[in-house]
Amino acid sequence: MSAIVRGAQLARMLNAWQVAVGVRGPAGRRPEYVVLASAVRGLLIDGRLALGVRLPAERELAAALGISRTTVTAAYRELRDSGHLSSRRGAGSWTALPAGHRVGTSGLWTPSDDADLIDLGCAAMPAPAELAEAATDAVADLAPYTLGAGYQPMGLPVLREAIADLYTERGLPTDPDQVMVTGGVQQALDLLLRLLVAPGQRALVETPTYPNALSAFTASRARVSAYAIGPDGWDEDLLLSTVRAAQARVAYLIPDFHNPTGHLMQTALRERLPSAAHAAGTDLIIDESFVDLALDDVAMPPSVATFDRSARVLTIGGMSKPYWGGLRIGWVRGAAPLIARLAAARVGVDMASPVLDQLVAVQLLRRRDAIVTARRRQLLARRDTLAAALRAEVPDWRFVLPGGGMVLWVELDAPVSSALARSAEELGVRVAPGPRFGADGTMERFMRLPYTLPEADLVEAVRRLAAARADLDRPRRHAWSSPVVVA
Hints:
Mean pLDDT: 88
Number of helices: 15
Oligomer: single chain
Radius of gyration: 24 Å
Shape: globular
Largest sheet: 7 strands, mixed
Number of strands: 14
């Protein structure tokens, strides 16, 4: 079943569409139905309205917007003609993209040896200074573990206990039997999909979302449905109605400083999500990768799992963002019986996580207060530096300053994200264009910019991005290569 957007919900998204009606003079004034169709098309292309969503009936939308049904009928016809709406008589109309407009989101970037390249494609930081000391102490703790085989699919008890304590301290009582250690957050998601999702089953994701999560869903051969996050975050009624209507096997959500938008989900929505998911037969996979990285004086809401009464919430987290990506330690928290099943499924993948890496993770968690405090202070300064540079160099670009996390989700002045990414790389800056964060190649008006690099690099990166944007507006002379003579 597809998600449905109600008339009042779509009207909120279109709250400024009427302004465009009077932009031109009387001689060049566009008909209202053309403006309405363009506004809906813009929401779709920018990723604010997901694909495959059923739009409200013509009469319902007309009432919500306070316009005639004839105008809505003509706008829907315009959208069908342009390929942005698919309709079936008596059944309804669904958002779509014209044939040939679907864009792939996969793609692997490898590290570059170019010292002049400023890489903003990855939201991660170097290892903390405490890593060397933690590794030394971990080696000292290793000897007793070498007497056994070293295979513990659930993870070392000492690390599982430390992770359980983290949840308990946040107000979510957790037993070590509810925790399984994995090879990073990505493996945690992959293992859950292997266990829970059969090929062809539906999975619900946010759009935009983390690109590697999309790759995992593609690999699992799930049918992906999307919920579009708006400029102010999640629309509570729309998300809950989407969860109920989609009846997906799983829903993957990032409520804590969402990657890439930076939004923080409100407590009221967290409280209602598990019951809505239970009613729809959906398990919630909650990614808390950024939960430790609150930068402003933000009161962190409870974990979504706090409100779970039906064992529907599976929480994943890891060491990559607050500590170091090179330490491939992640985890899953859930009901103990499911965690046991997950460990059994994990044996067919990689048996267990490296013992020494887990011991290093234990030592880093013992130094958590000092490490996380320093990370927050560093990221706060870099976030503000990046924001100031953007306001100075490209004032037409817009963004919402996130209260935490590692990235800005920037709305460009035109739908040129992919072209800008190519142009910027020629100037020595690597960035992730908006379409990489969506399931269907939309969001060409957006770009993700991490603030994990030193301040000087961020300022220089923005300067080069501004130059690359200016280059896109200039006529380009193509340099044709000389033909190769083969004798």
